[in-house]
Amino acid sequence: MSANPLDLLPEILLLFGAVAGLLLGLWTPRGRQARVRTVIVVAALGSALAAAIDLAQPDKAVFDDSWMIDTTTGVVRITVALATATAVLLASSWLSGHPRETEAYVLMMLAALGAIALAASNDLLMLAASYLLASIPLYALAGFAKDSRGVEATLKYYLMGALVGVLMLVGIAALMLAAGTGNYRELAAALPQAPTPLVALGIIGVLAGMAFKAGAVPVHFWVPDVTAGTTPVMAAFITTIPKLGAVAAAFRLVAEPFAQVSLDVPLLVAVIAAASMTLGNLAAFQQTEVLRLLAYSTVSQVGYMFMVVAVAGHSVYTVPALSIYLAAYAVTNLGAFAAASALPKAGQIEQWANGVRWRPWLVLSLTVVLLGLVGTPPTAVFVGKLAIFTATADGNLIWLFVLAAVNTIASLFYYLRWIAPAARAAFAGSDRQAGTDSTSVPVLAAPAVTVHATAIASVLLGIGAGLWLAVIA
Description:
Blueprint: H1 9-26, H2 34-54, E1 60-62, E2 67-69, H3 71-95, H4 101-120, H5 124-142, H6 148-179, H7 184-190, H8 196-214, H9 222-229, H10 232-238, H11 241-255, H12 265-285, H13 290-310, H14 318-342, H15 349-355, H16 360-374, H17 380-394, H18 398-426, H19 445-463, H20 465-472
Antiparallel strand pairs: 1-2
Helix pairs in contact: 1-2, 1-4, 2-3, 2-4, 3-4, 3-10, 3-11, 3-14, 3-19, 4-5, 4-11, 5-6, 6-8, 6-9, 8-11, 9-13, 10-14, 11-13, 12-13, 12-18, 13-14, 13-17, 13-18, 14-16, 14-17, 14-19, 15-18, 16-18, 16-19, 17-19
């Protein structure tokens, strides 16, 4: 076991970026906060580079076996860092000139650090600390606009987070009482002989915490309210970054300390996955508000992610499947929310469609992103779903495989409810008098560029998935 601080270089760079950004912001005039944004983005990109270099090293547990550096941690490190840099640039369209611009960027960096810590935690006490670090900054970000909807969303988010956090702490206490340790490796050896009721309480509590951070059923109720109540930019961050760490943490828990217990943990996770993808899709069908549609979309997406958690340790395809899907989801989800951010005043689907009248390239990129969330080839999510379905079938959860396939087809219809009117408006060259002039609803530049960039990245990652998997192998 190592105790070399350089083992945590990617995390140190994120922390350095947060501290340096905060100090720089204290001495920077409000009109020049862009320099803080530059520091934050450079630190995030440096963290991703350091993580990519470290990915080639052998797996190791560091700092008294409390922090695991392996493929899962490496993928989350890279994905979170790059997604955070993208989210910061996306936020510039809204935060530029804001009196608390620096604080927003710093909170985003700290939340990203917490997401990575969730994925790397190899001890229950470290997991608890990571949960707090990945939660508290997000409460502030959810209500950053300080309007009535934002305050309501923040209150709901905080209260549910506190409730589930207490439940998770009870679960951690139960597991440590049952096994006498919080280390994952030692838990794996001790839990099979521990009292079953105590172990069951512990597993439910800990998994509830990870399900809350991921936005999975049955602790998903905060997702639509927070997504619709905060700004589209913050919704993009809140529904993307924490999910990556939470799903990776759940994967590690099921694959290691919970693998040999007498309880059927994979079935429990499979039920969570099935409920999330199904209820998320059913709720999305009736949505006419863009952000609420995307909110329920994220709930359904976490259902697919939990499929690979359900078969953790039961298939050789789980780590590659998780790796490609996390990266694919981050790219595609950021692109979908960037589209909503491009027209922040157009909250309804029809309003958004009118706002992009005669802007075919923006609608084309939106189509790529939304069909990417369905899993249409050659996008990255298609490769990710193919890998997850393969792992699920290999893990003998055939019923979950079939249900996921049905849900994938069903999800196409509510994405088309957004795509169809936007496409009609964008390509309606012959009836310009029929709708609102496109100049009446300005499209923000940074989000529009982000939509195009993520659409291209989704396709490139899908085509180059073999290269990505070769890098992480």
